[in-house]
Design a protein that fits this description.
By secondary structure, this protein is an alpha+beta fold. It is built from three helices and eleven strands; from the N terminus they run E-E-E-E-H-E-E-E-E-H-E-E-E-H. It has a single domain, classed as Nucleoside Triphosphate Pyrophosphohydrolase (Alpha-Beta Complex), CATH 3.90.79.10. It is 21% helix and 40% strand. It is globular, with a radius of gyration of 16 Å. The two termini are 28 Å apart.
Length: 186
């Protein structure tokens, strides 16, 4: 799900900011659902894009898991006590913001209530994972971004395009779920 071309590794010697995102999963009407945010248009980086709650590591964060949990509370109002961390996915370099992002999958307990921080979050999306594995959910288009022509794969859900790092992270998680399902049937 990486756009082509996409720089996968940071340039040698580039100062990177460690970041973390939470991939919040929960059950909605019997289906595993992921929470995504639509970022506000006025933000400096990734304005208007669909992503996960997350951000840069702060000095008070002892671990990157703490960063993901803190950011989830700040952006969508979920207290860390309402989240069980299931594991970490592959860290990912984000060229525009020079962040090295660590994605953590978290399960929301039944009492978690979400509310978007209006300064950062335009909308909260609840996307059933089964919608992302439908054959027509994955699309590809040629886009021009910052003067460059890119072939961009993305997930389409309702009127939203989920692309870039978010699509790459979702794709890895879906592949792991598929593999786990195959393994459990063997």
């Amino acid at each position: 799900m990486a756009p082509v071309p996409r720089q996968l590794d940071p340039p040698p010697g580039e100062a990177l900011r460690e970041s973390a995102v939470l991939i919040p999963l929960f059950l909605r009407q019997g289906e595993i659902t992921v929470l995504l945010i639509e970022r506000q248009q006025h933000l400096s980086y990734h304005a208007g894009e669909i992503g996960f709650p997350g951000g840069g590591r702060e000095p008070q964060d002892a671990t990157l898991i703490e960063t993901a949990l803190r950011e989830a509370q700040e952006e969508i109002g979920i207290a860390s006590a309402g989240i069980e961390i299931l594991g970490e996915l592959t860290p990912l370099y984000i060229p525009p913001s020079r962040h090295f992002v660590h994605p953590y999958v978290g399960w929301l307990n039944g009492t978690a209530q979400v509310r978007g921080n209006p300064g950062e979050v335009n909308a909260i999306l609840e996307v059933p994972l089964c919608a992302l594995v439908q054959p027509d959910a994955m699309r590809r288009q040629t886009w021009i971004r910052n003067g460059r022509t890119l072939m961009v794969p993305f997930f389409e859900y309702q009127q939203h395009q989920i692309w870039g790092a978010t699509a790459m992270i979702l794709s890895e998680m879906l592949a792991l779920i598929r593999q786990s399902s195959k393994d459990s049937l063997s």
